[in-house]
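Q: For a teaching session next week I want to show students how multiple molecules come together into a single three-dimensional assembly. I've collected the sequence lines for a complex. Could you give me the predicted structure tokens for the whole thing so I can convert them for display?
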Amino acid sequence: MEQLWTRFSKAFLVQNRWKMYFEGLGNTLLIALIAALIGITIGVVMAMVNYINKKTGKLKIATKICNFYITVVRGTPVVLQLMILYFVVFAFWDNGIMIGAITFGLNSGAYVAEIARAGFESVDDGQMEAGRSLGLSTWQTMRTIIIPQAVRNCLPSLFNEFIMLVKETSIVGYVGIYDLGKIPGLIQSRTFDYLFPLLIAAVLYLVVVLALTRVLHMIEKRMAKSDRNAGGATNGK
Amino acid sequence: MENNVLISVKDLSKSFGELEVLKSVSIDIKAGEKVVIIGASGSGKSTLLRCLNCLEDPTGGEIIFENENIADPHVDINIHRQKMGMVFQQFNLFNNKTVLENITLAPVMVRMQKLRRQKHLALFGKAEKPTETKAQILAEEQEKAMALLARIGLAEKAEAYPSTLSGGQKQRIAIVRALAMNPKVMLFDEPTSALDPEMVGEVLDLMKELANEGMTMAIVTHEMGFAREVADRIIFMDGGVIAEEGTPEALFGNPKNVRLQAFLAKVL
Ligand SMILES: Nc1ncnc2c1ncn2[C@@H]1O[C@H](COP(=O)(O)OP(=O)(O)OP(=O)(O)O)[C@@H](O)[C@H]1O
Ligand SMILES: [Mg+2]
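A: Of course. Below is the structure for the complete assembly, covering every listed component.
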């Protein structure tokens, strides 16, 4: 018992090591947040290109480029993508956190594109026709009518993507970025004890993910409620 | 007088891939005229109506509106669509906007666009500096929208979202949304077909009001009583061509085309 306490203390309390976990956690959340913002932007833009192409036949080349991007990003391991960006593309740059965030943002974009595509598909065709019949351009209608409804329709999935990113970004430690996943290794190199640092990091991930999942459920509940009462923005049929 | 013609359709054709839906259709719609289009399902009524404002791109022929051939892909169709209101079977109110926003959205956007363009030109001394402001435009359009809502007795629904309204309410709002653009012509594609029977009357009444005010209207409908009462001219479509046209008295009283006779026997 005593021995376990010493091991825990060495892993967490001695030399204020607990601070390292929370700094790591902060970096993890920062990377996930920036990555999610980049990913959602890229994904929504790509889904939009796809939608306009489907509805008007325009943007053929842009659609091909998007599909190529999605194929390549989904078809290669994210660790390799990280290494390519860290050691090659951004070799001159020493801001590891930003490079990690950009990598995961670019990666996540390819997955968000699928999510957002479903969001766009769930918007009734009549919405675009109504906008166009009033003399608005395709882009004006997209901006004010279609995109808000598409994003709203896939909001839970987009938030879920953020939760995934919190966990998945734990591999940025590979290239020496100090996120929460990297901290156990750092502490083990001082104390020669892996068990507690790993357990503590795992518990922190779990707590954060559970908390975020609760937020997700709250969003879902609110949306279901507003669909029943006012502001329902699902298929208008 | 040739001048009186608002929309002139010449040899209009439309195909979806191999399927030829409209075969060389020609009609003139005069200012103030009410044209009702009838015909069996699949005869091309919707396609004809949707070609009039190029929601479907015609494959051939001309549509002359305000001295311009709007079937030509080089013309800025948005400008012309602003003067052609369209009402759909499924209402198509914007789900993410309140009733008031549904009505003001397009007029405000269009006027803001003009304002920005004028400001830009003024910057280079090529136009007068605009005196309007965004707040003015917004206030004006909101006032206009509220007046339209009051007219159809739905002023208290201004802040409601479409999903909370009945079909009849939605369709009447869709009609005044189109009116807010001050269109020269209104196109209706089966405006009452998706409504519960008890709500058909309120929508038809509003349409009759518009007709009496002299609005130019092209209406696809299966409401034969309404057609008889409101139409100046009825067009019977069959297999992508106009099989017969004439006054309601002539068409309903003395139909010549055998397909029209069969169609009327079924619907009347
Ligand atoms: N976007 C499209 N793509 C392919 N075919 C189409 C399309 N729109 C219409 N059609 C076909 O064109 C033909 C005419 O359709 P249209 O909608 O104009 O008929 P309609 O007279 O309005 O019929 P209804 O009374 O059922 O509304 C139909 O055979 C229809 O299947
Ligand atoms: Mg139809």
